[in-house]
Amino acid sequence: MAMRPLMPLVLLCIILAPLPVSLASKKRHFKWEVGYIYWSPDCEENIMIGINGRFPGPTIRAKAGDTIKVELKNSLPTEGVVIHWHGIRQLGTPWADGTASISQCAIDPEETFIYEFKVDKPGTYFYHGHYGMQRAAGLYGSLIVDVADGEKEPFDYDGELNLLLSDWYHQNVQAQMLGLSSKPLRWIGEPQSLLINGRGQYNCSLAAHLIPGSRTCKRRRGECEPVVLRVLPNKTYRLRIASTTSLSSLNLAIEHHKMMVVEADGNYVEPFFVFDMDIYSGESYSVLITTDQAPSSNYWLSVGVRGRLPQTQPALAILNYQPNSPSKLPSSKPPIAPTWNDYAHSKSFSYKILARQGTPKPPTNPVRQIALLNTQNKINGCTKWSINNISLVLPPTPYLGSMRYRLKNAFDDRKPPENFAKDYDVMKPPKNPSSIQGSNVYKLEFNSTVDVILQNANALSYNVSEIHPWHLHGHDFWVLGYGDGRFSKKDVTKFNLRNPPLRNTVVIFPYGWTAIRFVADNPGVWAFHCHIEPHLHMGMGVVLAEGVELVNKIPKETLACGMTGKMLMRNHLP
Amino acid sequence: MAMRPLMPLVLLCIILAPLPVSLASKKRHFKWEVGYIYWSPDCEENIMIGINGRFPGPTIRAKAGDTIKVELKNSLPTEGVVIHWHGIRQLGTPWADGTASISQCAIDPEETFIYEFKVDKPGTYFYHGHYGMQRAAGLYGSLIVDVADGEKEPFDYDGELNLLLSDWYHQNVQAQMLGLSSKPLRWIGEPQSLLINGRGQYNCSLAAHLIPGSRTCKRRRGECEPVVLRVLPNKTYRLRIASTTSLSSLNLAIEHHKMMVVEADGNYVEPFFVFDMDIYSGESYSVLITTDQAPSSNYWLSVGVRGRLPQTQPALAILNYQPNSPSKLPSSKPPIAPTWNDYAHSKSFSYKILARQGTPKPPTNPVRQIALLNTQNKINGCTKWSINNISLVLPPTPYLGSMRYRLKNAFDDRKPPENFAKDYDVMKPPKNPSSIQGSNVYKLEFNSTVDVILQNANALSYNVSEIHPWHLHGHDFWVLGYGDGRFSKKDVTKFNLRNPPLRNTVVIFPYGWTAIRFVADNPGVWAFHCHIEPHLHMGMGVVLAEGVELVNKIPKETLACGMTGKMLMRNHLP
């Protein structure tokens, strides 16, 4: 009863303040120049692709409802470039998705292209190159969307820290690409370093004095200076964590600090506590930590390798309780990642991720179920990854244009398989490892609900099955469930339709399956692929399309190559 | 009197055989695919740009009057590409000259472009990349044009051997380009190896056993197997020699064999004998040798560095007198190049090159004299090369299209300077080393006769003046004369108008000048530049244009970038 007098006040607030999002939202304008730079991300100098002369690229910070406008000048001397805004759905702007051969023609050297798109949903995102293997050359940065003015996150915190995780190879990406398409395969191996916010330490550890047999880092300053996370005691911090690794699955832990997971891929999740968390390439999270430990110490934040026998030193950062000096190293050993192949631990983490109350629920009746078998194959002696026995090769004419204007022979127009042999044994290497290359498209009925079963399998060698984080462009999807072995029809009954998390990236565990559902409600053509850069380069992806006939006003600049380029030149496009 | 009865027979031959050139000429069709390859040109494996999986690219062999059609597919994953046909004038086909930003837009990855042009003149030519520094990545090969059927060379020989010379760096060209445009400059240094037909030996010598302190080459097989020139005793051979080095000036000698120089850059010269010859990047020669030495031996052919303190092992090949085994190494030391800075020797060779009788003579009255001062400069702390204080920067829109369609603001349309300060002291570093970047064009009156004085000068450091081989696209020019120090008006009286050689490449010696004359009779836009790859990348060139309004039917594919690309898309070009 005592509450009642407040009611009119609340109404008033809603009417007068804040301004409606559409009026308060801003256009945020960035001018970027992409070029080669000398940089020493792990204290070893190398050549990277930088933005405005730096690595990583600038952090974009915006509010939900804002429009991002990036004027991107390509100053690479001979290479084209594009930038993908990972996790941004590009509602109404499929041409701004930044995937070469799918949403646009690569931007030529010396040309400037304008990316303009809305960030409609708060969350932790990032951006990266999506042409050749330019992401692995260092072309990436953070993109953080705050709630709109007047909106509130469903959790409180006193401060925020941002961690963009990646891995780094000393071999240049041209060499990496050539090796991956060579016969026999020359595998890129494990990365030389793991990076936190673009900084790492090659072949040494900040905590060497605590780890027998480890080398001490000398004079690690400047571009490879260790990341220091400055905090005050007894406060709550939001850590935003995203991984844009080329290869590595990661595990992150902060000494003595438990983490409450609250966001995954720009969607709120039902909060849960962990002491360490797995992060796969393409994923992002927010966790809350409370600085409730002895304030006289600093603490290690450690990032190690998961899912592959670690051959790379963990990346370390210092959680610096102020006013301690940041150079006061913690006196205990940094947290160690769980055993690399402790998949039970990894699964336990993934299974805990559930939608926060209020998250939209999936429609209950999918009209279509597509099963995608992930296999490692041989094509003409080259090692490839295939999906339902097709290894993806992107065509010279981006799909968005060729499909919108119904061009013939721009790609393989045959319907790709939606399932795989009933007797395929996912626990063994493929009986017939030969596969084909293709550019086929899964055409989805507009606004239909689609289930995809991602089915993992044994690779070419016995007893090998790897983790693959699959990333979907243009959509979030619900993760309905995971399972071991081959998916069977009756697994559908176990799908979580009550509180499945919404995400844009999800893993398949070794020998397992993952089921997702999404609504094909975003007119455009969208990549769906393993986010491991060399795996995608080896064909591990598919292309989805929906409502392409509804896409209007495709900027001509995005069409100026391949067959659409030729038609534009002959004035054969509207 | 006894000869008379033959007359009708001779007439008969002329009438019936051979067919007139225009009917006998062929279209020669090549399908090439450009891509990265692993290759070991000097027995150290590296990544190169190859054609059809090999390095160097395939040799094109044609007859004068033939049409060459190269269907070029770009299979580099993210880089554009073009190929310049060095020495081919591209009469009527200026868009096929293969110079990015001048004659065409770079060919995008996965695209195929068709080069089609006539080879009108017999001679020794080559082809190479002309985008970024792709030539230095290995994108080159030989192009040899024989006389038309029924025609005869003005000299006889029994056999022919082809030598394409180059130098090779282990650092990739992306790194080289970044270093060259960095502040401070990171100079590429001297090459790791010299190559003959794409083969060399890194850090060792085939003749190590004859040279104290030298290392023996081990197991030099396969891609770096030494070149063997198989000859029979007492025959005359034509050696075709061309240099496509990135940096090095070279000297070539064959043990005990004198060489009769008969051709330079596709033009016959008055034969003269030498025991060694200088070859600058961009030049080609034919020499005749007679295998008149003791037939029980093989002999060294040696290629060494000129004009720079040699830090690279000479390249060696074996002149193999059959039936000796090619593995029978000569028992004497290979010829040694003259002292690197013995410019008197170099000049003596250049001065001997004179036109063979019957070579067209230059018109006597040039309507214009352009003096081009070559200086090393600083622009915003970066080291550049400038011509009359402008360091060339190529625009995103190729000139051929932007000039043909009179686009505004596609490049700096102001007239570039035709001379330099009267008090400029070419013997000293520039008083004011600062320069500007520009994209200006020297517009030449169509069919006019133009003299260019290439004036060398002191570089940024005292007592440094380098050799620069200047190459003109689209034309041959007459070399009227050379001189030391600054060119003065009265030097005109010393011009050789009697038998100046026709060439497409000519050097300026340290602190000297070189005078050339040509007729601006080839409608198009043409590069004229130092053929040293890093010097061109640092701005050492100019752009010439003539009769551009007469150029018809520019293939749209060559215009599909920059401003012409945008206009094509808007249907604003005819």
**Which chains share the greatest interface?**
A-B, 39 and 39 residues
How large is the count of helical segments of chain A?
A: 7
Subunit organisation of the chains = homodimer
The 3D shape of chain A can be described as globular
Main beta-sheet strand count, sense and barrel state of chain A: 6 strands, mixed
As laid out across the biggest beta sheet of chain A, the strand order is: 10-9-12-17-14-15
Organism (chains A, B): Phoenix dactylifera
Enzyme class (chains A, B): oxidoreductase
Signal peptide (chains A, B): 1-24
Pfam families (chains A, B): Cu-oxidase, Cu-oxidase_2, Cu-oxidase_3
Question: How does this model look, in words?
Answer:
By secondary structure, chain A is mainly beta. The first copy, chain A, has helices spanning 6-16, 21-24, 173-180, 343-352, 399-404, 533-537, 562-569, and strands at residues 27-39, 46-51, 60-63, 67-74, 83-86, 112-118, 123-129, 140-146, 159-168, 193-196, 228-231, 236-243, 249-254, 259-264, 267-274, 276-279, 284-290, 299-306, 315-321, 368-379, 382-387, 390-392, 436-438, 441-444, 449-455, 468-472, 477-484, 502-503, 505-508, 512-519, 524-530, 541-546. Chain A is globular and about 70 Å long. The termini of chain A are far apart. Chain A binds chain B through residues 36-38, 47, 77-81, 105-106, 108-111, 131-134, 172, 174-175, 177-178, 182, 395-396, 556-557, 559-562, 565-566, 568-571, and chain B through 36-38, 47, 77-81, 105-106, 108-111, 131-134, 172, 174-175, 177-178, 182, 395-396, 556-557, 559-562, 565-566, 568-571. Chains A, B: Residues 34-146, 162-323, 428-547 form the Plastocyanin-like domain. Chains A, B: It comes from Phoenix dactylifera (Date palm). Chains A, B: Its EC number is 1.10.3.3. Chains A, B: One of its GO terms (molecular function) is copper ion binding.
